[in-house]
């Protein structure tokens, strides 16, 4: 097979990416290439891939609507050029805005919906020229009844998260710093419990993200509650090994949580809000705790010493292996290609 993977235009792909979609693309594409298939990736410059990268310009400065449209247009041109020059068996989209640069070609297409389904336009669910895939059961349950969606659960590279547990002295929050991720709630809980905290992750150049950081997060930072900026994979694995627990006070209906999977794989318990798929990832009382309020989250932190490091690691081995995810995608690719060819073969042909 020759697979063309298409990333969100504005964020590079790689193991150190801050976005879950970019990390999943990296892992799936790596497995596709390792299995001997041809892999082509259209993604922002600076991306790390195993196959052939077609880089698009990495936009700098504030990301406005005009900048976003420009990036989408470049993506579309690159896709059309790839289709002209290569024999592509399937296009796999990972960006929230995939419909903005989806080509009219009859090549089989698949889009993984990494974000809440309400964040996508309703029109994508009535289209028949692209297969749609969810990343959790709770996400799939929010789909329109008439829209058949497959589900492939996310996974992570378990081999990266095998450091021995460390001091367990601080609380940890990491991810994209933006309003819906609840960074300020994690900091408020750390202050309330008089516990040190490390906050890590990028503030992307979207105006609302930057305003949120300066108005809601920065005032809560001090010598005991530190923001250390974006982190790479090595630093992330070290922090996870040393943290008392990972807080995920997300205000959005999370479709999955790679951060929770990474913490559990490190033997570190997770305390998370009951948001979207988080209760599917965090097994309450076994690998962490699910909270329905800030009070419950604060109380749960005190109970994290009861969570077994070895139980966390074992549950991760059973549930979060990226090899299972990649194999599921290979099977889905074959199914989508087969179904698309059957549709084309059965379509009425006009006499010439």
Task: Describe this entry's structure for a reader.
By secondary structure, this protein is an alpha/beta fold. The chain has 2 domains: 2-155 and 321-346, Glycogen Phosphorylase B (Rossmann fold), CATH 3.40.50.2000; 158-317, Glycogen Phosphorylase B (Rossmann fold), CATH 3.40.50. The chain is built from 11 helices and 13 strands. The protein has helices at residues 20-34, 65-85, 137-140, 183-193, 207-217, 233-242, 258-265, 278-281, 294-301, 309-319, 322-346, and strands at residues 2-6, 38-44, 52-56, 90-93, 109-112, 131-134, 150-151, 171-174, 197-200, 225-227, 245-248, 270-273, 288-291. The strands form 2 sheets. It has a 7-stranded parallel β-sheet, sandwiched between helices. A 6-stranded parallel β-sheet has the order 10-9-8-11-12-13, sandwiched between helices. Helix 1 (20-34) crosses helix 11.
* Poorly predicted ranges: none
* Number of structural units classed as domains: 2
CATH superfamily of the largest domain: Glycogen Phosphorylase B
Please name the CATH topology of the largest domain.
Rossmann fold
Instruction: Report the helical percentage.
Output: 25-40%
Helix- and strand-based class? alpha/beta
Annotation, overall tally of beta strands: 13
Give the strand order of the largest sheet, numbering strands 1, 2, ... along the chain: 3-2-1-4-5-6-7
